[in-house]
Write a structure and sequence with these properties.
337 residues, alpha+beta, five-stranded antiparallel beta sheet, 7 helices, 18 strands, disordered C terminus
Length: 337
């Protein structure tokens, strides 16, 4: 499953500084573009002006980076309005969507690049060089809502999720009016049902850190050093079905290691095996025992593992967006009645 394209969905929710602030993307965007007083501003104008701010923030000579994860991103955009330019990123002012391809990857490691045809042909890759790939993204920002939807394509062996989340958190805020938004992973109901109908849980992994005295007792003095503990639970024959998982997960979470319940471990992950494709998909397990699987794109679109995949990924993202919109914004409408 090397370099397998996958997709993640995130919900971005605005966080106004106080309750008196109008909690909409429209209000935030008007602050970002510097026009909160003009009357009768068209929504399409507000959105396009915000899109310019987006491009000016991401299409710079210096790549936008996350020092914690050593990931960076950039865009290569010339003109957001000219029809004569084949832009990588498109702006849909009628539907408040920004979508397209950005460049990103990892940096921070000194390496060598060697030609496979001639091993003597070498060059240095410095710590400041990013090894990049292309990634598709789509963000839907309805102006009358406080929620946006972000779809982000990545790969099984590489992703830019952390730096993209950091970018949008920093962009979708405004001093003294909006704090950084909340951003949470979202799994569409249809995707969960697909996995319930045709996947098994092949393993569960629990990871945390515990102090030396909890692990070793008082027999060894390690000056309160911490140890990383990983426990992997894997059926020896076939994996758990979803029904079996529902029955087994509570007792598993109550199991203890050195008096630490697995349920309080910091990281809970696992792997799903798709019966139809035979491919594995990693997932995270939240505190409500809800499985949040990655969306392996080859299950839903034809993947050739080259740049010809992007138009099909784009088409699928637009289809998936419609499903998520029904789930997210219909929920809000019901709650507000």
């Amino acid at each position: 499953m090397a370099h397998e394209p996958k997709l993640s969905a995130y919900i971005i929710k605005l966080k106004p500084v106080n309750k008196r602030t109008e909690k909409t993307n429209r209000n935030l965007f008007r602050h970002i573009i510097g026009d909160t007083s003009s009357e009768n501003l068209a929504d399409s104008f507000i959105f396009l002006e915000f899109s310019r701010k987006f491009i000016s923030a991401i299409d710079t000579n210096e790549m936008y980076s996350d020092e914690n994860t050593k990931k960076s991103i950039t865009a290569n955009q010339i003109d957001i309005e000219s029809e004569n330019v084949n832009t990588n990123i498109r702006f849909h002012s009628d539907s408040f969507i920004i979508e397209g391809i950005i460049e990103g990857g990892a940096y921070g490691r000194k390496r060598k690049k060697t030609s496979t045809a001639n091993k003597n042909n070498k060059s240095e890759v410095s710590e400041g060089d990013a090894i990049t790939d292309d990634f598709y993204f789509l963000i839907y920002t309805p102006l009358n809502s406080d929620k946006s939807i972000l779809l982000l394509q990545s790969y099984s062996d590489d992703n830019i999720d952390s730096v993209m989340k950091k970018f949008w958190k920093n962009l979708l805020c405004y001093p003294a009016v909006f704090n950084q938004p909340a951003l949470s992973k979202y799994i569409p109901a249809g995707i969960i049902q697909d996995f319930r109908n045709g996947a098994t849980i092949s393993n569960l992994t629990y990871t945390t850190e515990i102090p030396s005295d909890s692990l070793l007792g008082n027999t060894v003095n390690f000056d309160t050093r911490n140890f990383k503990i990983t426990i992997k639970i894997e059926p020896t024959d076939s994996g758990f079905t979803y029904d079996e998982f529902d029955e087994a997960i509570a007792p598993i979470e109550q199991t203890t290691f050195k008096n630490f319940r697995l349920g309080i471990f910091n990281k809970k992950k696992g792997s799903l095996k798709d019966v139809d494709t035979g491919k594995n998909a990693p997932f995270e397990l939240d505190n409500n025992f809800q499985i949040k699987p990655s969306i392996i794109l080859s299950k839903y679109v034809t993947i050739n593992y080259d740049e010809s995949d992007f138009p099909r990924i784009k088409e699928y993202c637009f289809q998936l967006l419609e499903s998520i919109k029904q789930e997210i914004y219909l929920q809000n409408a019901v709650q507000e009645r």
